[in-house]
Amino acid sequence: MATTPRRVFISDCEGPITKNDNAAELAEAFIPKGDIFFSKISLYDDYLAEVVRRPRYKAGDTLRLILPFFKAFGVDNRSMMKFSRRNIRIVPEADHMLKEILGLLPAYIVSTSYSPYIVAVCDAIGFPFYNTYSTAVNLDNYVLSAGEKVIVKDILLRILGLPDFSIPPGAASAEDLSDLDRKTVQALDEIFWELMPGLEIYGIISEVNPIGGVEKALAIEKIAAAEKVELKDVFYVGDSITDVEAFRLVRKAGGIAVSFNGNDWAVKEASFAVTARNALPIGWLASLFAGHGTTAFEDLTMSEVTPETAGGISTLSCKVRKTVRTEKIGSLG
User: 8-330 — its CATH code?
Assistant: First the structure.
């Protein structure tokens, strides 16, 4: 009797499962003008990861760059966990969707989010935390002296005072930015790669390793090896720049990489793009994949992402993304 090949479901957390951007929300809650601060650092993250491709830097490293600022304003492990538990917002039907998928095939969450948030989400929806990968952080392991606290707060004011900047479509180097925008990123370069490395608290930036970019791809490879499946038998769902490397890995291997209400970065690298106000379509597609693999998608009417269609799909996807996750969070990279 023929046996069904083993297949695996893997999803990002923020976007497909929750509406939050936990790091952005923590910054807004604890850091003065933290929403403006986080938006600037998030865009700087996009610039470093996908425009100039800074060595040893990956999408999602925003989460390590902002940690000294959390310390400066009194965030610790307890407050991070307490805030995360109180502010979880689940994408409609995502908890039911995951429970159904767990009954069909192995399911994992691979997220750039801080681990305390992922613990809180798993507790809220009944998902096994041991089936997750996320950014491990222990704020209580690091001490910020009174002198350095003053310096970090001064750096925050300096960053807030920098002019806003933008990344032109198709930008491939710093030269593609306007003169003013280039001065802003140069100032951020000086802050994070020349000034801050001289501080003791910089240890938290150098030691914390966010699960974004290539780290997500590595997590997928580890999961596939542990589950004894080939990468073509992986179904991966994501929505942002931190999923780009994961999408490339899965798509190249012949698996399914789905953008769910993805931003421009995600849509352009996905196999297929889905826009929806609830998570049910993810479950439907995962169920097809569990039973039939990639052949289930051959006759499925979807908007396939190609160079010709990516622009229109991205516009719609970004619109729905902002409706589901709010204008502020949906605008982040």
Answer: 3.40.50.1000
